[in-house]
Amino acid sequence: MPEITIPATDGSGSFSAYVAMPRQAMVGAVVLIQEIFGVNHAMRALSDWVADMGFVAICPDLFWRIEPGIQLTDATQGEMQQAFALMQRFDQDKGIEDLKATLDTARTLPGGNGRAGTMGFCLGGRLSFLMATRSDSDVNVSYYGVGLDGLLDEAGGIRAPLLLHIAERDQFVSATAREAILAGLDGRPGVAAHVYPGVDHAFARMGGHSWDGRAATIANGRTAELLAGVLG
User: Hey, which residues are catalytic here?
Assistant: First the structure.
């Protein structure tokens, strides 16, 4: 089951999603939320890793309304410019609706137990935060989400466990923004935010320019523990 098709809830069409299945049955599902590069090799590898941890993994193509099947990297300036242009054109609210549709599908996939959460990176980390405030996802994990300081007025909607991984030297998140995020979420039940010293944005993307093995291992261990505790 490498790919499935999910109908959009607004009736405008359908979109594809990469699916990776674990060996065991009756487990929770994780909706993987892409960076600005689409459902590329890195996102598929992350989905496979989640499946190896024992969860159903599903990664939807959120740029399908702009151009289906986008698969970029951060290896060239041209690809970076294309990725940022896609992000500027991306309708965030429509993306959340597509993620809700994916979440509903994830809960019904063969081998699942009906529980499902989200895990996002960069743009996906932002959207995972919004899924925590706007959806009934069972758990949400945000890796170096961008612009979260501008979303704090929605924090009152958080009902399920939320884990944030924040890079201390994130080139896209200022120190002022980071401190605002930490202060705005401090004391909220079920919310945990960890800052990883000395690392940049995308520190957990293996093979990326900012990869940091130590920080990624610690962050991923916290993620695995939370997912296992909530999703089974």
Answer: 170, 201
How are strands ordered across the β-sheet holding 14-20? 3-7, 14-20, 56-60, 27-33, 112-121, 140-143, 162-167, 191-196
Whole-model pTM: value is 0.96
Residue type at 232 in one-letter notation = G
Q: How many CB atoms lie within 10 A of CB 68?
A: 14
Q: What is the pLDDT of residues 20-72, one digit of tens each?
A: 999 988 899 999 999 999 999 999 999 999 999 999 999 999 999 999 999 99
Please list the alpha-helical segments (H only) found in 54-174: 77-89, 92-106, 123-134
Torsion sign (Cα): 171, 87, 154, 130? negative
**Domain span holding position 160:** 3-231
Q: CATH no. for residue 9?
A: 3.40.50.1820
* Domain total in the chain: 1
